[in-house]
Amino acid sequence: MIMKDAHKTYRRGSGFSLLELLAVMSIMAMLSTVAVTGYFSAVRGMARRSAVKHLVNTLVLARQRACIEGARISVMLYNENTGDDEQGSAAAVPSYVVCKEIGTISNISGDRLIDEFETLGKFFTLGGQTMAGSMGEMLSMRLYNITVGGWWEVKPWVEEKYGLVTGRDSAYDLARNLTPKPYDLPVYVFTKNQQVTSQRGPPANEPPGGWRVGHSYGIEAVPVNSLPRGILFDDLDERVDRRAICITFRPDGSAEQAETVRLVEKNPPKRGLSISVSRNDGTIKYSEQWK
């Protein structure tokens, strides 16, 4: 009888009551909530650090290349239009690219940008109608406006033209061709790729006020990069019609003008961080704290 009562007591003490089970489940739910919240906070923190690190490193690289190569190097910040989202609005991806200055526009004729001074045959393939037929019209590259920002989609070659500017040979042309030619000055021409432009809707990437004689142009020196998901350029927001931000470094390390770029979070609490570039010496400063 005593052993049977002890066995019953053991069975009652070895189980969980309903209240105990509910308490354990509540604790597990709270721990799961804390873990999930901590995970997403860690992801947001990594995104913020990555956005600042890569953009600052890009600016430092551009300044270093300007000093080493003795050329103006720019970092252009813009919202890339990647098409329409589910709501039918333009989907914007905050992007930035390093551009190296190649030359200066000396003449403009319709959808053609002309450079009379740079021998662009050293940098680009010489082509024309035959190349257009063999390579396809949809091939294009971006010609960036270093002076005011923006770009044109142009055909990925230059054409050497005669008779567009004046009536005499250049010194370069005379040295290259021993046989005298009719007096003419060759120029190099970029042609806008209208097919690519027309398929992308309104030309939001157009340089403000259009191209002008004296505007500097360049091409990308490194592949285009973008900000992590959930991080935006404050001045550009999520709009694709905002003017691109262009930060240009000179060969002496200084900047064309002082500029401050603010990164912000897309979702609440929408903290932000500012990166500033000094005009005098091109110094890049930023705060580690998002607020």
Radius of gyration: 30 Å
Poorly predicted tracts of residues: 133-137, 198-202
Query: What is the count of distinct domains?
Result: 1
Helix content: 25-40%
End-to-end distance: 73 Å
What's the overall average pLDDT, rounded?
80
Number of distinct beta strands = 15
List keywords for this structure.
291 residues; alpha+beta; seven-stranded antiparallel β-sheet; 29% helix; elongated
What does this structure look like?
With 291 residues, this protein is of the alpha+beta class. It has one domain. The protein is built from 5 helices and 15 strands. It has helices at residues 2-13, 18-69, 129-135, 171-176, 194-199; strands at 73-84, 90-104, 107-109, 112-115, 141-145, 151-154, 159-161, 187-191, 216-220, 225-226, 231-233, 245-249, 259-265, 272-277, 284-286. Strands 1, 2, 5, 6, 9, 10 and 12 form a 7-stranded antiparallel sheet that branches. A 4-stranded antiparallel sheet has the order 3-4-8-7, with no helix packed on it. A 4-stranded antiparallel sheet has the order 11-13-14-15, with helices on one face. The protein is elongated. Residues 133-137 and 198-202 have low confidence and may be disordered.
Layout: helices, strands, pairs:
Blueprint: H1 2-13, H2 18-69, E1 73-84, E2 90-104, E3 107-109, E4 112-115, H3 129-135, E5 141-145, E6 151-154, E7 159-161, H4 171-176, E8 187-191, H5 194-199, E9 216-220, E10 225-226, E11 231-233, E12 245-249, E13 259-265, E14 272-277, E15 284-286
Antiparallel strand pairs: 1-2, 1-12, 2-9, 2-10, 3-4, 4-8, 5-6, 5-9, 7-8, 11-13, 13-14, 14-15
